[in-house]
Design brief:
Shape: globular
CATH superfamily: NAD(P)-binding Rossmann-like Domain
CATH class: Alpha Beta
Bound molecules: NADP nicotinamide-adenine-dinucleotide phosphate
Largest sheet: 7 strands, parallel
CATH architecture: 3-Layer(aba) Sandwich
Length: about 240
């Protein structure tokens, strides 16, 4: 029997745009109380009514940069204080800066690794004690097919996502006997403003953000006797 998500409590990092909004909407539609984080207060304010409209679950928006451990810890503490606990952590916040290694600045390298990899450590480290307190929960990391299929001009991004895959697999083994289920999703191209800034670009063939959200719900509803720990999600018919 699939477990109901109604009344569960979730935090979605980077929930103010793109895939994160779709995941937050899908959770709220199932009656989950959802806190979303982001860097920009304006993006969070714009996202809030869109997420609330998917109700019945409640929504909280929290400004917190995943690169900063103190901010992440504060956001997770605020979520627990507002809703009474934490059951689900979705590590979705990520950045894509694409340049060849010789041209990429050390600051750009740091921004990618600090957001896509260290940011996930920060949120997991702050969240795990709260998940343990509830006798279990779920952590879902949004990785990328770039984590296994490296390509030119993307060394930092591919390395951050390959690192995230290894991190997720090690963490999965560390916490599974605490009933904390760790999975990661590796989407191909998704129609969001990611890197191009144009959500409509390639929308006819790319994965829709709602389809990534559907995988998140499937993982959360999956029978607890087994664990789909890694999901590859591709456009059915990618551009040739
Ligand atoms: N789009 C794709 O083709 C694709 C494919 C595979 C995997 N992914 C992965 O999916 C995830 C979401 O991507 P997306 O396409 O939805 O991107 P997006 O539309 O650019 O949205 C990124 C979200 O992450 C937030 N964010 C960025 N840096 C942050 C930080 N330091 N702290 C907190 N929040 C931060 C942004 O908040 P602000 O609004 O405040 O900046 C925004 O809400 C990323 O991890 C990405 O690597 C994307």
């Amino acid at each position: 029997m699939a477990e109901s998500l109604n009344g569960k409590i979730a935090i979605v990092t980077g929930g103010s745009r793109g895939i994160g909004v779709a995941i937050a909407r899908a959770l709220v539609a199932e009656g989950v109380q959802v806190a979303v984080t982001g860097r920009s207060a304006a993006h969070l304010s714009a996202a809030r009514p869109r997420i609330e409209a998917a109700g019945p679950g409640s929504v909280e928006t929290l400004q917190a940069d995943v690169r900063d451990y103190t901010e992440v810890e504060r956001a997770i503490g605020a979520t627990v204080a507002r809703f009474g606990g934490l059951d689900i952590l979705v590590n979705n916040a990520g950045v894509g800066i694409f340049a060849e290694v010789a041209e990429m600045t050390p600051e750009q390298w740091a921004e990618i690794i600090d957001t896509n990899l260290t940011g996930v450590f920060n949120a997991c480290h702050a969240a795990i004690p709260h998940l343990r307190r509830r006798q279990g929960g779920s952590i879902i990391n949004i990785s990328s097919l770039a984590g296994k299929n490296a390509f030119t001009g993307a060394a930092a991004y591919c390395a951050s996502k390959a690192g995230l895959n290894a991190f997720s697999e090690a963490l999965m083994q560390e916490v599974r006997y605490d009933n904390i289920r760790v999975s990661y999703i590796m989407p191909g191209s998704v129609a969001t403003g990611f890197s191009s800034g144009d959500e409509a670009k390639g929308a006819d063939w790319k994965i829709a953000p709602e389809e990534v959200a559907e995988v998140v719900l499937n993982l959360l509803h999956h029978n607890r006797r087994s664990l789909p720990s890694r999901v590859e999600l591709r456009p059915s018919k990618p551009r040739k």
